[in-house]
Amino acid sequence: MSAEVVVVTGGGRGIGRAICRRFAADGARIVAAARSGDELAETQRLVQQDGGTCRTIKTNVASSADVEKMIGMAVREFSRVDVLVNNAGVACNNSIEEFDLQVFDAMMAVNVGGVFYACRAVWPVMREHGGGVIVNISSVAAVDPFPGFAAYGASKACVEALTRGLAAEGQACGIRVYGVGPGAVDTQMLRGPFPDFPPEQCLKPADVAEAVWMMTQPSCQYSVGQTLYVKKS
């Protein structure tokens, strides 16, 4: 559909920026949210360079108040929200003995709390307008975490459980909820802990963006609650 209103968290760079550009290319109006104003400005510039419409809002998804403001701004600007993509996330690669507890709490607040807050905030907006689509970004680590990524994988497994539960809850009001779980993606988030990860084994952000866009299409309406895993073979 053209002129959809799409809210993307973590929209300042990487996968989130690619998602913004993919939906804008399909005629959607974008609300990009992230913590960095400079990164958001670049996303807005690129979307507008492509001929799209983009608003931005600095948002810490670990704050329920920030998330409420994000959805409120989207409604004020565009009157509704058709698609929410919960993309914001953080990762830490460390053993259980060395995992800092404050880092763990912060990661869970973003990866799990941020998804819950955003779904909760957008739910009445979508219900009032007859439905909508939510796509939660998970990870292959949810089902296959390697050593050092146990906590990150657990946070994404929580996201997938939330996706399944909300998909069932949304059936009565026309809200469809899906997950997309990428493998390694060539982003700053990957290159931080894994600077030498082979590029040929990485997806591009645009690959994930295409999968997210696909999940919002009517052809996927009978796959609600499922997480689509996307990775290089």
Description:
The chain is of the alpha/beta class. Helix content is 45%, strand content 17%. It has a 7-stranded parallel beta sheet, sandwiched between helices. Helix 2 links the parallel strand 2 (29-34) and strand 3. Helix 1 (14-25) packs across helix 7, helix 3 runs parallel beside helix 4 (101-128) and helix 4 (101-128) packs parallel to helix 5. The longest helix is centred in the middle third of the chain and has 28 residues, at 101-128.
Please describe the structure with a list of short key phrases separated by commas or semicolons.
233 residues, alpha/beta, seven-stranded parallel β-sheet, 7 helices, 7 strands, 17% strand, globular
What's the SSE blueprint?
Layout: E1 5-9, H1 14-25, E2 29-34, H2 37-49, E3 53-58, H3 64-78, E4 83-86, H4 101-128, E5 132-137, H5 150-170, E6 175-182, H6 188-191, H7 205-215, E7 227-230
Helix pairs in contact: 1-7, 3-4, 4-5
Ranges where pLDDT stays below 50 over 5 or more residues in a row are none
Rg, rounded, reads 16 Å
- Beta-strand portion reads 15-25%
Helices and strands, in order, run as EHEHEHEHEHEHHE
Outline type: globular
Instruction: Count the E strands.
Output: 7
**Main sheet overview:** 7 strands, parallel
Head-to-tail CA distance between termini: 32 Å
Summary of the model, kept short:
The chain is of the alpha/beta class and about 230 residues long. The protein contains seven helices and seven strands.
